[in-house]
Amino acid sequence: MNEKFDVTGMTCSACSSRVEKCVSKLEGVEEVSVNLLTNSMQVKYKEGEIDENAIISAVEKAGYGANLHQGAQPKKASVKVDAVEDAMHSMRYRLIVSFIFLIPLFYISMGHMMGLPIPSFLSGMENAIAYAFTQFLLCLPILYVNRKYYQVGFKTLFHGAPNMDSLIAIGSAAAMIYGIVAIYGIGYGLGVHDMALVERFHMDLYFESAATILTLITLGKYLEAKSKGKTSEAISKLMDLAPQTALVWRDGQEREIAVEEVVIGDTVIVKPGAKVPVDGVILEGSTALDEAAITGESIPVEKGVGDSVVGATMNKSGSIRFRATRVGNDTTLAKIIQLVEDASASKAPIAKLADKIAGIFVPVVILIAIAASAYWLIQGQSIEFALSIGISVLVISCPCALGLATPVAIMVGTGKGAENGILIKSGEALETAHAIQCVVMDKTGTITEGKPQVTDVITLNASRNELLELALALEKPSEHPLAEAIVTYSEKAGFSAASVEHFKAVFGKGVEADFNGRHYLAGNQRMMNEAGIDCSDLLNQLDQLADQGKTPLLFADTKQVLGILAVADVVKPTSREAIQRFQKQGIDVVMLTGDNKRTAEAIRSQLNINTVIAEVLPQDKEKVISDLQAKGQKVAMIGDGINDAPALARADVGIAIGAGTDVAIESADIVLMRSDLLDAVTALRLSKAVIRNIKENLFWAFFYNSVGIPLAAGLFYTAFNLKLNPMFGAAAMSLSSVCVVSNALRLKFFKTDHTAAELKPADENKQQGENKMKTIKIVGMMCMHCVNHVEKALNGIEGVHAKVDLEKQQAVVTLDHEVSDETLKAAVAEAGYEVVSID
């Protein structure tokens, strides 16, 4: 069982370390991870041996509060935002009250040093009691509004687990107690007329130090909270994406309901300009959806009947109706939010060092403070001097910076990844990714599109239009994936499927049928040979196509081959660039595929991949990963998350590309929301940036404490007369935390090194032999004679093959080479018609 808890009362890494230690001791608990930044705790435990109540009880006994996490559904965004706002409002109130009373306190205690006039009833040794007591009264409101430091600090101290609040509470309380003792000392001095004693206590009041420490710590906490708020902007933005209402069809009418009331099976209506409320499948209509919020892709995606839609995407054009398939916490958006939250709350292995140190840091600091004070008393310094040293050590040593060094960087990093469609599931995955030495890629659906496409149309004894018309008619009844590619291509070219008779699919060879009163065949060379059709003149051409990784399909009548259509799973436009970038970073690239060696070699030579392992069964892919790891390499596996699940789980970092399946999310460490290998490159770059940032944060946190503590303890006092005032110690402590958080926020400026434009297939990235298609909108055509005129005019241009549709008032042209729009327009105009647009 794996549960997430919200923990209250934690203020520093010593707190999180204490909670983690207490819960991990419980019988039945297998793994605990407490995150200071998100105030959360992830616990893996055996369900039969322990329950949530026992875990919550253990946290409470440690001096903190805990309750089960409420979940990450988008509808709770406003609740979470309100909670954060309430906390910020409370801290702002404390800060304002503190400064209102601190300013006059400073004026009274320090004004005479700057030559400022002090009220007569407070000046002079005869008014020393009034002078000291006024400062005491001004301190009380500051202590009261910041009483949380004392409540938590002393509570954890008495539980034997002192934290940052304990240091503040002890330090400021010591200053206050000494000030009260000083008031009694002044009173005693005045009573016995010992003015030397009065003057001594008059000069050594520490009320302003106690008040300043509390105020500056609160100021630091406020600035830190504001900065930390910015680290979770990605999650807040994701939550805000979800619409609050949905338009559904119920009881024969449109009804607007709260989005959480939508149930699976509801028919949801989305009008232009509205957001899709939940996930589903389109039943009616077509549109273009802006999926940038989910995938990071800025170009709207065309959607029609049967296509899936994702909640929180924006409907840009047409009105659609879809059937809800995932609602509430099951929507893609909710899962993304949960993934980002879990990753933000998880710990990278590098964070364990900081946690171990933080667990013993505060008790050690208290001992150092006591030892330093005792040392200076032994050396003959005054009680005031020794007290000042002790307080300075306590307030400058708060381990906030140490505790924040890793979680803020991980939260900003995972949030930045989510903005770009890269979901990193844990801090461990984020850290491991920066050390990857070898990337293993599945071929189908990862390097290639995963869907066969027609790449070449070769005419022999028939025209192009005749060949495509015949191919569509023969392949339409077939369910073979290659047939589907031919049907899609032909229909896109403007042809409509005609009916055939006596259709027959011959397993492993092809199909045959009667069309327009004649018998035709469509299939491989073996089918042609068995039918007695001579293909000897085509052997070289067929071999060339096969060497390019293409599957040639021959179309013939009973006497001769009429033409060839070559089909292939084409390489994605960005795959070559991604592989080159991996190689430039010194990462070995291995392609893993179940395809035959000839096809695999064609892809290898095309993309210049280092190593190819072909004819591998899905169950054997995991062994390939294990073999590479046995050689001492850190391996990342990139696959589609379905048949690659074992290999994804075995790899040091599993990257699921083209996400959306539950298997991908379960088996992979990093999930890429769009099918683009360049995002995998970005994921590794982001990992390196985050780890570099964490190391910087840890360096400065350790450096700050290694310099600050000796300075506060008076180590440089004898040699250089350097002594740290407690007020400056408090300011320095607050500043260190703000600096660490600010450094982590620099990750928000991380940018991908590729743009959406690169995702659009450029002509030079297309497979060799692929033809470009254009749709020409034409006005003025009235009958089939008009159609014939336009077809003749367009087909008269070299390299142009046109099919004109009277009903749609358009011509679909396929170009063997680049032909300008002006040339096409001129041909149509010469035929006596007008071109409206060319797409």
Strand composition percent: 15-25%
Principal-axes shape call: elongated
The share of residues in helices is 40-55%
Number of strands: 30
Spatial gap, N to C terminus: 55 Å
For the largest beta-sheet, the strand count, sense and barrel status come to: 7 strands, mixed
- Overall average residue pLDDT: 81
Structural class: alpha+beta
Walk across the major sheet and give the strand order. Answer: 14-26-25-24-15-22-23
What is the tally of helical segments?
Answer: 31
Low-confidence stretches: 75-82, 755-770
Give the radius of gyration: 37 Å
Task: Walk me through the structure.
- The protein has 839 residues and is an alpha+beta fold.
- Helix content is 49%, strand content 20%.
- Strands 14-26-25-24-15-22-23 form a seven-stranded mixed beta sheet, with helices on both faces. It has a six-stranded antiparallel beta sheet with strand order 6-5-7-13-8-11, with no helix packed on it. Strands 16-21-20-19-18-17 form a six-stranded antiparallel beta sheet.
- Strand 20 and strand 21 (561-571) form a beta hairpin.
- The longest helix has 36 residues, at 677-712.
- The model is unreliable at 75-82 and 755-770 (pLDDT under 50).
